Amino acid sequence: MKADRLPRLTIASGGETRVIAAPPGLSLRDAIGTTDLKVRSGCNGSGACSLCRVRIEEGTANEPGANELVMLTAEELRGGIRLACRVTPVGDLRVRIVNPAPASDWRRLIVEPPPGRRPLARPPGGRAAGDGKESYGVAIDLGTTNISMSLWDLLRARRLSSVLGPNRQSCHGSDVMSRLIAACSSSAQASEMSRVVRGSMEEGILDMCAREGYDFQKIAHISVVGNTAMLALLVEKNAGLLLSPEHWTAAVDCSPEDGRTWFEGCRMNNDASLEVVQPLGGFVGSDLLAGIVATGLTEGDGAALLIDFGTNSEIALWDGTRLWVTSAAGGPAFEGWGIRHGMPADTGAIYRVDGPNGDSAPSVRVVGGGEARGICGSGMVDLIANLARAGLLSKKGKLAEGLRDKGFVVARGLPDIVLNNRDVDVFQRAKAAIGAGVRVLLTMAGMDAGGLRRICVAGSFGRFLDIRNAQAIGLLPVASSERVELWGSAALMGCEALLLSEDGSVYLRSLRRDKTTLVNLSQVPEFGEHFLESLYLQPLGQD
């Protein structure tokens, strides 16, 4: 194995096989949990339950430790049986899950800050410093397409589990405007949309508890952040305001009338307190505020930019003294929607594309290994950047003459994964909305992109993002790689900080009142010009 390559894990369960790269320091149990395959577990990886049994079929791992020597027989160890929570891959490894858990749409989410940034610490005077009784808390980032959440031991301020799963409300529309219009057209439909998303949240919470053997009756507090539309639909309140432009810079009340009633009739603790962290205003939600908390965007006097990519993308610019924020309706292209062969960054998605080089076909990497079923947002960034470098795609987004009718074949299969001009156009428009939003905020702050000391990228889209390719097509401002930070689940990390802190609302109130200017892009005369300039597949600001 090359020194610069992470160990490759081949995971088999029944007739299914997944191939992934093992992040450094991650146990085999946690690595398996990032896929759609599952291994049973009941002790949060302490090695006490002996449920997470796997068989090492090929490759190298660490030697069995004390837990395994006690829990497993000598015969089992000789046969390659190990506890996945005690296994750390040393090189490439092929394993088979001996004790699989029931299938679930919820997969383990690795929640970590970028290298060099501080992990979440216990806040002074936080919620965890309570009456000393064991209790749990749940932090939830409610996204348009996906919901991410984590379970916390409030007494010890310790994360117990974190998962990512689908927001089943997407059956009512892939974008926020479609869902808002649907909710406003029928009160029965609005109630159903709220019920569906609450059911999705409950499903994820119970999945975390069942997976690790925690008592969901001990959940004492739940904190929720999200984009404004999702919060309004969740609480069945003020969704109609978001369809009126005069409210796009005004505060929108998304507080629940009585959140405790949400848990009546289900297995959750009826006494659990619920906090829906209020959005900043318009389409700028509390997920962006939570991202600002997690990244420490406003700490220090250096200029910093935060882009939270999603179906409703949000942007915050800190100029050293003031925060400028906006939302950009880029649509769901970053999560694969609207692209002919697009899909989220799930098993089977092409997430990395190298080439084409000359006449050779591109080399692709697929989430979970195996045959490609589609292409996700980061794969689209790579593909478009590489086609532009190869002269097969113009900076206006038009494929070369010989490709305009049939498209460009990214990967052969059933069906072939093909990129056509319409796909490029959909992605360009999403990219241009972000680029125009960044340009507007920089102009209003009297800055240029060269003055940015930090560029923070948040959202699941950024998990596999190639920074160089993103900058080449104008998705991110040009800056040295050490200034770009891939935060991934920043909104969830910020929600966790608010969950643990009794004083989080004080900080957010100060941020809203004293330091923030909310910008409605539709009211900026130069937005249209910036949007057209940002359509070009070239570095941001290069006209």
Structure write-up:
The structure is a single chain. The protein is of the alpha/beta class and 543 residues long. Among the domains are: 8-103, Roll (Ubiquitin-like (UB roll)); 109-287, Domain of unknown function (DUF4445) (Nucleotidyltransferase, domain 5, 2-Layer Sandwich), CATH 3.30.420; 341-419, no CATH class. 27% of the residues lie in helices and 22% in strands. The chain is built from 13 helices and 22 strands. It has helices at residues 28-33, 66-71, 74-78, 176-185, 187-212, 228-235, 286-295, 377-389, 421-444, 467-472, 490-500, 504-515, 527-534, and strands spanning 8-13, 16-21, 53-61, 81-83, 89-97, 107-108, 136-142, 146-153, 158-166, 219-226, 273-276, 304-308, 313-318, 323-328, 349-354, 363-366, 374-375, 408-411, 417-419, 454-458, 484-488, 516-518. The strands form 5 sheets. A 6-stranded mixed β-sheet has the order 6-9-8-7-10-11, with helices on both faces. Strands 21-20-12-13-14-22 form a 6-stranded mixed β-sheet, with helices on both faces. The model has no long low-confidence stretch (mean pLDDT 87).
Descriptive key words:
single chain; 543 residues; alpha/beta; Ubiquitin-like (UB roll); Nucleotidyltransferase, domain 5; six-stranded mixed beta sheet; 13 helices; 27% helix; globular
